[in-house]
Design goal:
By secondary structure, the chain is mostly helical. Helix content is 70%, strand content 0%. The termini are far apart. The model has no long low-confidence stretch (mean pLDDT 92).
Length: 155
C-alpha cells in the first residue's frame, strides 16, 4: 500500500511532491483517455477507496496526518479535473494549474475538509473536492470558450 500512497515513490520527491505527482499523473490521464470514458471513470472511482485505505495505512505507519509523501490524493484529484475533456496541451496546462491552485490554497470548503476529516478519508476528500471544482470550471471553459484548443493529442 506504500507504493499506492506514494504513487510508486513519486511522493518521495524532496521538492513539491504534490506537484510532481500531478505531473506524473499526466501519462495516466492520457492512457485512460485513450482507453475511453468508461475505463477512465471506473479507474478514477476505484482509486478513491483504494487511496483512502492506502493513505490510512501510511498515516498509521508514519504516525502523522497527511504526510507529504502521500500523493495518491493528488493523482485522483487531477484525474477528476481532466475527466471528459479534450486532451490538448492547453487543457492539460490549465487543468494542472487550476487543480494545483485549488489544492494548495484550499478555498471554500476544501480547507474545512482538510482540517476536519481525519485519517485516509481526510487525506483524499480535500483533493477530490478540489478535483470536482476544477472539473466544473474546466467544463465551463470547454463549453463557453476556445481556451482549451482543439488539438487532439490522444484519441
Amino acid at each position: 500500500m506504500k507504493l499506492v500512497a506514494t504513487f510508486f515513490g513519486v511522493g518521495l520527491s524532496p521538492k513539491a511532491p504534490g506537484t510532481v505527482a500531478t505531473v506524473a499523473t499526466i501519462p495516466l490521464v492520457l492512457l485512460l483517455n485513450w482507453a475511453g470514458p468508461i475505463p477512465y471513470m471506473l479507474v478514477t472511482i476505484a482509486l478513491i477507496p483504494i487511496g483512502i485505505i492506502a493513505a490510512q495505512i501510511y498515516e498509521q505507519d508514519k504516525g502523522s496526518h497527511d504526510a507529504k509523501e502521500i500523493v495518491i490524493d493528488e493523482v485522483v484529484g487531477f484525474l477528476i479535473t481532466m475527466v471528459w475533456l479534450p486532451l490538448t496541451w492547453q487543457a492539460i496546462l490549465i487543468g494542472f494549474v487550476l487543480f494545483r491552485l485549488l489544492d494548495i490554497t484550499k478555498p471554500l470548503f476544501i480547507g474545512y475538509l482538510d482540517k476536519k476529516i481525519q485519517g485516509g478519508l481526510g487525506v483524499m476528500m480535500d483533493d477530490v473536492a478540489a478535483g470536482i471544482i476544477a472539473s466544473l470550471v474546466m467544463q465551463l471553459l470547454f463549453t463557453h470558450t476556445n481556451w482549451l484548443g482543439s488539438q487532439i493529442l490522444v484519441g
